[in-house]
């Protein structure tokens, strides 16, 4: 057992600075997500949230790689679900996060991928993923009626998170990405 953990620690390419930076960004994502749950919804439509915790996920996608961003995203969802959620909330969050993250990674690979565009694509796909989960779990065919509202909400909230992530990346990028070296 000790040999396995020793091998795991010493063969890992992640530096202590990078681990600490990712840990801090995970804490920021958790705190922002929790604070958002305390706020009133921005509009009186069920299911629409700003997605403040995604600020850290989008930033890590630009600071490091899709692997670190994916791990941070998964850990954020699991920890929040364990602390404040339930199985249904976990299912909806994971469905939206997987759809969103796949599209953000694909959009990030593009030559002219702006942070705002990547975030907007993620916001839209998160909502689409959650609507598909609702369709599967509840067999209610309100999907087509609710889809336009959720698409607009995803674009708007994605733009807000994208703008904030752009500022964060511009201002903190040299310090955070230096920790990865």
Reading the helices and strands in chain order gives HHHHHHH
Q: Under the CATH scheme, which class?
A: Mainly Alpha
Main beta sheet, described? none
Give me the Rg, rounded: 17 Å
- Relative strand content: under 5%
User: Which segments are poorly predicted (pLDDT under 50) over 5 or more consecutive residues?
Assistant: 1-11
The CATH topology corresponds to: Arp2/3 complex 21 kDa subunit ARPC3
**How many β strands by DSSP?**
0
In round numbers, the mean pLDDT is 85
Shape by Cα distribution: globular
The secondary structure category is mainly alpha
Report on the structure:
There is one protein chain. By secondary structure, the protein is mostly helical. It has a single domain (17-178), classed as Arp2/3 complex 21 kDa subunit ARPC3. It has helices at 2-10, 16-38, 54-63, 66-84, 87-108, 115-138, 143-178. Helix 2 (16-38) packs across helix 4 and helix 5 runs antiparallel to helix 6. The longest helix has 36 residues, at 143-178. The protein is globular and about 50 Å long. 34% of the residues are buried.
Topology:
Layout lengths: L1 H9 L5 H23 L15 H10 L2 H19 L2 H22 L6 H24 L4 H36 L3
Helix pairs in contact: 2-3, 2-4, 3-4, 3-7, 4-5, 5-6, 6-7
């Amino acid at each position: 057992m000790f040999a396995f953990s020793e091998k795991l620690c010493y063969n890992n390419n992640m530096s202590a600075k990078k681990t600490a930076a990712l840990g801090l960004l995970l804490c920021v994502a958790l705190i922002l997500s929790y604070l958002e749950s305390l706020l009133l919804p921005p509009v009186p439509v069920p299911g629409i949230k700003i997605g403040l915790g995604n600020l850290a996920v989008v930033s890590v996608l630009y600071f490091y790689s899709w692997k670190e961003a994916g791990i941070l995203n998964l850990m954020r969802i699991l920890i929040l679900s364990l602390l404040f959620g339930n199985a249904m909330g976990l299912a909806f969050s994971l469905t939206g996060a997987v759809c969103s993250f796949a599209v953000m990674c694909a959009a990030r690979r593009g030559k002219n991928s702006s942070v705002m565009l990547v975030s907007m694509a993620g916001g839209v796909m998160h909502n689409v993923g959650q609507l598909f989960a609702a369709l599967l779990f509840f067999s209610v065919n309100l999907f087509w009626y609710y889809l336009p509202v959720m698409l607009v909400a995803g674009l708007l909230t994605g733009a807000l998170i994208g703008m904030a992530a752009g500022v964060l990346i511009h201002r903190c990028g040299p310090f955070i990405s230096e920790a990865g070296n």
